[in-house]
Each structure stands twice: as C-alpha cells, then as structure tokens.
Amino acid sequence: MILTHSKPTAKITSPTTVALVLVACLAGLFTTKASAEEKNQRYHIDMIIFEHLALKGWTEEYWPSIVDSAQIENVQDLTATGRSPLFIENANPMLDAEASRVAKNYRIITHQSWVQNALGAKESPKLFLEANQGSTSFYGTVKMYQSRFNHIEIDFNYERMIPNAVRSEFAQMQKIPLNDLPTHWPFHISAQRKMKSDELHYIDHPLFGVLLQIRKLD
Q1: Total-model pTM
Q2: How far apart are CA 209 and CA 57, in angstroms?
Q3: How far apart (Å, rounded) are the C-alpha atoms in residues 101 and 15?
C-alpha cells in the first residue's frame, strides 16, 4: 500500500491586499485621533449682558408677573475653573471695544469672558452665572456645545426696579392698582443660536440685550 502525503497549501496575500488593510487601519487611527481632538477643542467665549435705559420698553407691551425660571439643575459654576469636563479658564475679554460702545447708551450688568472645552449637547453642562448691578439682579445659565455646528443656549432671569417715571402707566398696562404695584418686576430670556467662530451675535429684548462671540483657539 502506497501512502500519499499532501502538503498544506500556503495562503498567499497579495501586496495590494496588505496595502488596503494598512490604509484602513491608518484611516481608523486618524479618525479616532481627529474625533478626540475635536472633542477637546478649546473655545474662547465672550458675553456682555446689558439693560436698556429707555423707558418705552416698560409700557409698550404686557409683561406677566409670573415668568419661567431658569433651569439651574446640573450646572457648573463659571467661577469653578479647572474642573472637568469643561476645564474652564479665565480669559481676557475680546469685546472691550463693543463694551465701551454699549456703555454709552446702556447699563452693563455683567461682562464675562472664559475658555472652555467644546463637548456634545449631552456631555456639556450648563454654566451658572449671577450678578447684581444697581437696581437689577440677574441669574441664569449659558451652554456652549458642538453638534454639526457650534451652539449657544442662554436661559436668564432678571428682576428690575420699576422706574418711578413709568409706574403709573405700567400699573395701568398690567391692570394692577398703583398701590399694589411692587417695586421690582421679573423678566425671563431664553434663546439658542448657531454660531460660527468670530461671529458677533446680538440677542434682543425690549429691556435687555446680550452680545455673544466665540472664537476657536489654535
């Protein structure tokens, strides 16, 4: 009886196949690296919040005495620098020239400037801010996040003293007896903007205003 031994057949991989595999691996590596870099991208944010001094905004429309409250759950304090996940840093204002122009005709409530990580909508917490300026108090949140574009969300509450010059007319507009009119009145602003780097955005309100700018850091 003759025994026949068969040799195992070696699998030969062509140079083209090897090259394609290497390209695919490198592409995956670069995509992962790009995603990580994009997630950790730093942005400089500058925001000016101010109030109108003109009195017509008080009496041109009805202002409800009960307003929505800014949602301040799960927030990160703007003053808490170096904390994950935003790793906030203090920064010099970008909008000094704009602030000087605003101050000529309006009262600035607060001017804030900071650097933070850009995260997705679910990962990025809201930042809590508050300030007092004269007869106006303010608190609320601002959130910057990235999806396909950069987004800014603001949610602010104000309480402002009713000017004596318009108290009578304001009471009539609100259908409240003048003697029952409180000294201060509440207001609420909530808005969202898609923003490109270096664009200046203005969020308007008859009694308040917000200037916003973000800048991508190298």
Answers
A1: 0.80
A2: 12
A3: 66
53 token code pair: 């001094």
Q: Name 119's bridge partners.
A: none
Read off the tokens for 169: 């007319």
198: left (phi over 0), alpha (psi -120 to 50) or beta: left
Tokens of 63: 């202002």
Cα–Cα–Cα angle for 86, 148, 32, rounded to 5 degrees: 70
pLDDT less than 50: residues of the chain: 1-10, 12, 18-38
> What confidence score (pLDDT) does residue 64 get?
94
Q: Cβ of 102: how many Cβ atoms within 10 Å? A: 18
- Determine whether 50 is exposed, middle or buried from the number of CB atoms within 10 Å of its CB (0-12, 13-18, 19+): buried
What does the alpha-carbon distance between residue 150 and residue 121 come to, in Å, rounded to a whole number? 10
What are the angstrom distances between the C-alpha of 217 and each of 6, 91, 214?
A: 66, 12, 10
DSSP secondary-structure letter at 166? G
What is the distance of C-alpha 166 from the center of its chain? 34
Q: How far apart are CA 19 and CA 16, in angstroms?
A: 5
Question: Which pLDDT score, from 0 to 100, does residue 7 have?
Answer: 47
Return the closest-CA partner of residue 71 out of 145, 153, 167, 16: 153
- Ranges assigned E (strand) in the chain: 42-52, 75-77, 89-90, 106-117, 126-133, 136-146, 150-161, 184-195, 200-204, 208-216
Report the alpha-carbon angle 151-157-161, nearest 5. 140
